[in-house]
Amino acid sequence: MTIQRREFLAIVSGGAAAGLAGCTGFASNEGEGGDADGGESSAGIENEELVLTTTTSTYDTGLLDEINTGFEDRFGAPVKAISQGTGAALETARNGDADVVMVHARGQEDEFLNDGHGINRRDLMFNDFVIVGPADDPAGIKGTKDAAEAFATIAESEELFASRGDDSGTHSAELEIWEASEADPGGEWYIETGQGMGDTLNQASQQGGYALADRGTFISQQDEIELEILVQGPIEGGPEILANPYGIIAANPAIHENRNYDLAMAYIGFVTGQEGQEIIENYTLDGKQLFFPQALSEDPNYQQYVPEGWQPDGNTTGGDADTDA
């Protein structure tokens, strides 16, 4: 990881993520009387099915297949993956239809945790968002260092902008940028596809428009569309507002008694452990890394487990955690 990427990791994690947080038994049994290929620890979950609901970006890029194949090989438990936008993925889990969620919208994740539906959240990985558009760039945003300024310029020019419009993590990030731009995303030039990232990129390409995309999905689609990156995210020195961290959360068994909590924690332990993080680190397309692991560090970030700003005394303002006993 370059110095620039290390700096970005510090931005999105507020330090770095913690270790396995109680899941180490699932990550490795070597030296503890277990079998490195599953052995005793996986005997109780073998052939049980994990239901994972996750974002379209992890699915469209092919990363999810790599992770799930590794988990199935390790534990003998198949994974049923439901690919949705972040909002829909969390709603599926709220309805009691998922064991674990893998998403990328911290505000929505925090609401899910605060409402009691999820526990044991972990920082998982990150990439970033980029603003893409046609090569001739009719709005003239190429090279802009301020994402909000780029959005404002697109709105002023009324060049077509394709939004996912689906309450996904990408859509949430887009709305945050529009708010910062003080521009009104409306009118005939602004279309909401209601589709995943791949379909939205296709529509933007076909109509010569702009879009906000996660870097991973754009890389996986770039040979099939006529769009290019015009405004970079923080991985390549762009603004912090385009950071795109991912989290993973188990369904709370106290509320969703029908869910397989043991299997969910096995999956979280695997994907945030050494083997899972290496899969993320080594996954590339066309020689380009799509995601960067974030779960392992010698400097634990305990804030990852709870809603941002939460304090033991109930103060959620994000103030000093050093309170009198």
- Fraction of helical residues: 25-40%
What is the rounded Rg?
20 Å
So, CATH architecture of the largest domain?
3-Layer(aba) Sandwich
Number of helices: 13
How many separate domains make up the residues? 2
The name CATH uses for the topology of the largest domain is D-Maltodextrin-Binding Protein, domain 2
Could you name the CATH homologous superfamily of the largest domain? Answer: Periplasmic binding protein-like II
CATH class of the largest domain: Alpha Beta
Report the β-strand fraction as a percent range: 15-25%
Can you tell me about this structure?
The chain has 325 residues and is of the alpha/beta class. It has two domains: 3-127 and 243-305, D-Maltodextrin-Binding Protein, domain 2; 128-242, D-Maltodextrin-Binding Protein, domain 2 (3-Layer(aba) Sandwich), CATH 3.40.190. Helices cover 36% and strands 18% of the residues. The protein is built from 13 helices and twelve strands. The strands form three sheets. Strands 1, 2, 3, 4, 7, 8, 9 and 12 form an eight-stranded mixed β-sheet that branches. Strands 5-6 form a two-stranded parallel sheet. Strands 10-11 form a two-stranded antiparallel sheet. The longest helix is centred in the N-terminal third of the chain and has 13 residues, at 63-75. The chain is globular and about 55 Å long. The termini are far apart. The relative contact order is 0.21.
